[in-house]
Specification:
single chain, alpha+beta, five-stranded mixed beta sheet, 8 helices, 52% helix
């Protein structure tokens, strides 16, 4: 069932209940009000009529009451109509004498009344022709009773007319309300229908992802904005998921390739040795050393992957105050010893640069940064390692004047197994995990790593770590 149908039925149901409640209260109230008016009139006229009957003697056939009301004197005689619309009956024992009738209506049957109503009580009585009266009685003082009765059949007819009118007006009003409510609700839900159509179109692949609706109410505007935000968030999540899945596939492919190459070499050398291909001891020794080198390469790859996994599961097992200056100084000294053909420069401030973290992991960060330059740049490259205090943080930079990277590759340098020149990197022994470990360790210490073009045209890797004043946190 459509929402507008439910709303329309709901409005009609509420209206019908209110209509019935008003009818059950208003119609009986109107009936009682009209009856009370008749009773009040009877009470007001009763003394005057009693005085008129006593003045006329009450038993003069064809006589007239004061005030001009004709009277009759015998039962079944020629009693005339009363201008006030009353039936006047004198009761004496079992005899009832009709003095006046209310027009053409038969007088009420009042036989059996032997005493006037107490406390001014007015009761219902019925005539032989079925006419209903409201009747009041009073004592004439000579043993007779005077009954004054006002017909109320017109009152019943008036109430019936009121009920009929109420039903007609209610039915017409309900029909008009249904039409107006349907049109108004349809107008109000038109924008919801538009939102539904836009959502269905987006679900079926509409490239226009906007749910822009010219909403006229605050609730619809909020709904439209919330749905737009939801669609945008879903799109971003899908894009991120697609990229993540692509990188995962690339990572698995690269890891498989990195491990397959040394495995192939090791198994090949071992198979040749088993086949007796190495006749002399020198060839055998050289082949075993090559197999051992490939096995060592596999061990380094597995160790690096294990470290990355540990960083993902337990980012920072221990934390202490670590001075960055000695770490950089030692790492640069090691590089000068390992590769004296390159120029290694160091730029450190005089004051200590203290961060809160794991000394072993931070040492591996600065070592990997320098090893990355040594592995991926040509000989005679000038490398500068510097550290400086920042705004509540410690900044570490390693810059070189090598060939650098294209702008589109800068954001990928921290991806696992990513290489700008895969063939040269493998030949030099790189696995593509060095900068990935750097990014993971820095992230575990609550910092950030970024790559940028160096002023001399090479590459700059910049590390930002929170100072020791703030505890390490994972971003």
């Amino acid at each position: 069932m459509h929402l507008r149908t439910k709303l329309t039925l709901g409005i009609l149901t509420v209206t019908f209940v209110v209509f019935l409640a008003v009818g059950f209260v208003a119609i009986p109230a109107a009936k009682h009000a009209l009856r009370d008016r008749i009773d009040d009139r009877l009470r007001a006229d009763l003394p005057e009529i009693r005085a008129s009957v006593l003045a006329a003697g009450g038993d003069v056939p064809g006589g007239a009451l004061e005030g001009g009301s004709p009277v009759g004197g015998s039962p079944g005689g020629g009693a005339g109509p009363d201008e006030r619309g009353y039936a006047l009956v004198v009761i004496e024992g079992a005899t009832a004498t009709v003095l006046a009738t209310p027009g053409t209506s038969a007088p009420p049957d009042l036989r059996g009344i032997t005493a006037p109503a107490r406390g001014g009580e007015i009761r219902y009585v019925t005539a032989p022709d079925g006419t209903t009266y409201r009747c009041a009685t009073t004592d004439l003082g000579d043993g007779r009773l005077l009954a004054v009765a006002a017909p109320v059949d017109d009152l019943a007819g008036l109430v019936d007319d009121l009920i009929g009118t109420f039903i007609v007006i209610g039915t017409g009003g309900a029909a008009a309300l249904a039409v107006l409510a349907w049109l108004w609700i349809r107008h109000g839900t038109r924008q919801i229908e538009h939102l539904t159509r836009r959502a269905e179109a987006i679900a079926h692949g509409d490239p226009d992802r906007s749910l822009a609706v010219a909403a006229t109410t605050t609730e619809l505007r909020q709904l439209s904005h919330a749905l737009d935000a939801m669609v945008t968030s879903i799109d971003q999540s899908l894009v991120a998921q697609t990229r993540s899945e692509a990188r995962l596939r690339e990572f698995i492919a690269n890891a498989s390739h990195e491990l397959r190459t040394p495995l192939t070499s090791v198994s090949g050398y071992l198979q040749l040795d088993l086949d007796g291909a190495f006749a002399d001891g020198e060839h055998h020794q050289r082949s075993m050393r090559r197999a051992l080198g490939e096995a060592s390469r596999m061990r380094r790859i597995v160790t690096d992957l294990q470290l990355l996994t540990e960083l993902d599961e337990n980012p920072l097992p221990t934390a202490a105050e670590v001075d960055i200056n000695p770490l950089l100084r030692d790492a640069v000294h090691d590089m000068r010893t390992l590769d004296p053909t390159r120029t290694w420069t160091l730029d450190l401030p005089a004051q200590p640069l203290v961060v809160a973290g794991d000394a072993h992991q931070l040492r591996q960060v600065v070592t990997n940064l320098l090893v990355n330059v040594r592995v991926h740049t040509p000989p005679a490259t000038v490398t500068t390692a510097r550290a400086s205090p920042g705004n509540g943080s410690i900044v570490i930079e390693v810059s070189d004047d090598g060939p650098g990277l294209p702008a589109e590759d800068l954001e990928r340098v921290f991806d696992r197994f990513w290489r700008h020149d895969p063939s040269r990197s493998r030949a030099s022994g790189g696995s593509g995990l060095g900068l990935s470990i750097v990014a993971a360790v820095v992230s575990a210490h609550g910092g950030a790593a970024e790559a940028a073009h160096a002023p001399d045209g090479g590459l700059t890797i910049r590390i930002m770590l929170p100072g020791s004043g703030g505890p390490p946190r994972r971003p």
